[in-house]
Structure formats: structure tokens, C-alpha cells
């Protein structure tokens, strides 16, 4: 799942990292010492780009120091000041929202885009930006779990997404470093079983889906990650996502569309949304393009799981690694690409996904960046200093297909949603722009039945297992919120280290306690305002994460990622 949330590795401009050759020789105590050093770095007061340090006066918190420079984003569009009526109102100015807006204004529709912070300040600014031809839940699994027809439609939509971005870049003159590159799917372990059972099946399914794939042997070339057997997927897209969506935004405004930043939506209903300032926008159609929809519809939230994914950016010499995209067959899988800088390149490596909202201890065992670094250095020997680390949040649907289309809520007929992109937000967001434009204007699109949020998932082992995990995660979150003595951290408030947090009990209530870098204590209700689960402290991102549906709040309780539409409430003596 190609996601991302980048933040500079704490307290340094670059560092050599651990020599991968040393890992097999490490004793348990030595490995623990190395892990402890990384944990200390990840919680140090020198951490760059912390939520409380970035453009707070302009309302831009929760940004990260990414290879795309997300931390430099500032609002350039106005805040909405009065009620408006339009054809379509879109909530969210990331890849999905702006792609949809662009397609609609090109058709002459009046469009208003409302963004809580600034365009690209969410997960679009944290992506590794693979516009992929490979579907990361495997074409052969789509064919087996759904049908060959669905497999072919997914392939068609993925090709269309890449063609759309290429055409838009050319038509609008967007300078975003877009280029076509090869992609390679390679076995996570070099065994005949993996090669035959996974690569061969995926090769045949990709052929059926319409791709000109080839089985290749890269002969262990260090410029290709010492990979041998692989499937070559030609025609993927590399680009800078923030430069691209800025180009989309300009094109939208040029065609008469309106974009409002610092305009958080706190209420949505059929044909109308309302901002935190009480401003109403009424429209024929409402699009919720906010990573996870800002609603309470369990028909959506119960069929996908929020997951964190982790990324490291390594400095490499110019041309040391082939310019391509790389994905392995592991679960969760690793994803790799390069980004060119003026004097060097950056090797961007992601993976090690885990469920969001797990305990602080679980986030750190094993430390995801330590194991990701080890994995990388064993394969890409060109990797030098670590320049960036980051995390991002993705939503995994239970049946492996994106959720794009009409909200299944029977009380609404004008609301459309985009979610469940499985970490392929750049491809999925582009597909959403094409699909939703057709549904809003014509009421139909040949891809609709594949991506419809109202579709029935296959009743198979994988669906049952995934659904059970999601239900278990959510039930634990609800039980924690209502049961005294469960879900509280053992550490005493006075023992909290600077820049760390914990869940504590205050009377009958649970509170989220954060000690800032200056030693000051901040207390908030630990109850997520979305559906009342208890948030958990994330020691890697310094955030409060909801285990039920993935809402994220920064250390100071401010909502960074929905579906919550409000901040954590300040704790009072009676909380």
C-alpha cells in the first residue's frame, strides 16, 4: 500500500543508519539497545516538523517534513465567509477531491471545494506517489474472489487513471515531474513456491486484465535491489503529488470553480454541508473526499480498516538505482521508488503496515523504522544516509476493492463518497474523479458496479476473517470507553517524559494526557468525537489515534484526519 506521512528522522539532518551486515550478528541485548536508541530519537524534543511547530497561526497543523515538502504548505485560497448555492460541493482538497472538481468544472458545472486546512495537507501530502498499473491486492485475487469481468474492469480503470494524469499534465501545463516508468513485482522470498504460486498466477491474471506484462530476470543487479525473478509492469507514473494538485487547483479556479481553505466541514446532510463557523453550502450533489467519509454510516466504516504504513527516504547517488517502481509479494508488502533532487536522488521505501489505534507498546514492537531500514539495506546497497522518515494512513476494504460512488445511506440520494483506496490513493483518487463525474452528470459509468460502496462483498474466508478483525478492533475500542480500569496506561502523569502521552482515568472518565516539550501537561477527553471509542497514544507520530475508524488527533487534540469532524474536547475536573 503506497501511502505516506513523512517527518524528518528526529534530531538530525542525515544519519548513516545501521549497517545491515551487522544485524545477523547482533545479540538480543545489542538489538534492544539499538531499538532503544531509535525510540529515543523518535521521541526526542528535537523532532522536526512536530504538529505544534508548524504554521499554527494559519491553522496548518499535522503536517510532516516529506520529500514533497508538505511542511511548507500554507493556505493560498480564502476562507468561506457566506452561504453559497452551487451544483456540486466537494469536501476535501486532496487528490480525490480536486480530481473530481477538475472533471466537473471541465463539463461546465459550478463547483465549490471546502478544505479544513490547505490543499494537500492530508494524506495526499504524505504519499509515496506511485500511480500504478499493478493492483496491490493482486489481480488474480480479484478474479478468484469476484470475477474475471471485475478483474478486467479494474485493469481498465488503472490504465485510464495513468492516461488521465498524463493528459492533464500536458493539457494544463502542470510542472510536476511526471514521467512513465517500469514497475516490478518481485517475490518477497526467492523460492519456487512463491514464484509459482504467486508470480505465475499474477502474471496470467494481469495478462487477462489487459496489461503487456513480462516475466523477467534482473540477475541480482544492485541497481534493481538485487532482485532476480519479477513481473515487469510497463507504463506506471511517477510525479510530485503536491505540484500536481496545485496545478489542478489552478485549473479549477481558472474554469470558474471555487476553492476555500481553512473551512472545516462539521455537518453534512443530503444536499447541504455546514462549516464550523455555521456557513452553509447547498448543492445538487455532495462529495465526501476526506480519506474516510465524515459520517456515521457503519455500512462504510465497518467494511474497511484504518492502517498505518511507514516510509524511509535514503540518500543515494545520482543514477545508483534504476528509476522504476518496485513492489514485493509480502503481506503487508514493501513499495519502492526514487525521487530526483538536484545533487542526489532519494530512495523512498515503504511498508510494515499495522492497524491504527493499537497500544503505544504495540506501535514500537518491533520498531517499524528499524526493521524497514534493515530490509532496505539488505537489498538496495546504494542506500546511504536516512534523510526522511514518515508514516501515513490508508484504508483497507474487506473485499480488496475501492469504495467510490453513492453513499449507501438510504436517507440520502445526493451524497457520494471516496474511500477504501488500499493505499493507492493517487491512482484511486484519479479513478474517483472520472467515475464520480459520470455518476453525477449521467448517473452511470461502466466501473460503477466494481467500486460501488453498496456492493455485496464475497462471502469467503478472507472477507470473514477481515470483518472479524475489524469488529474485534472496534468492540475493544467501545468496551474500553465504558469500562473503568481497562485501557488506561500504567505510567503516572508525573512520570511522563517530555513529548509523550498516555491514557489515564479521571473519576469515571478517560482522559488523554500529553506532556509537551517544555514539560507542561495538557489534558483532553480520550473519547473520539466520531463514534465514542477511546483513542490511543501513538509514540511514533506523537498523535492520538482512534482504534475504531482511524480518526487522528495531534498531541494537542486537534483533528488531523477524519472521520471525526471535531477536536478532542478539553478535559475538565468532571470529565
UniProtKB/TrEMBL annotation:
Stored Gene3D superfamilies: D-Amino Acid Oxidase, subunit A, domain 2, FAD/NAD(P)-binding domain, Rieske [2Fe-2S] iron-sulphur domain
Domain called Rieske: residue spans: 488-575
Range of residues in the leader sequence: none
Keyword field: 2Fe-2S, Disulfide bond, Iron, Iron-sulfur, Metal-binding, Transit peptide
Coiled coil: none
MF annotations from Gene Ontology: 2 iron, 2 sulfur cluster binding; metal ion binding
Protein's UniProt keywords contain Transmembrane helix: no
One Gene Ontology term, aspect cellular component: cytoplasm
Listed name of the protein: Rieske domain-containing protein
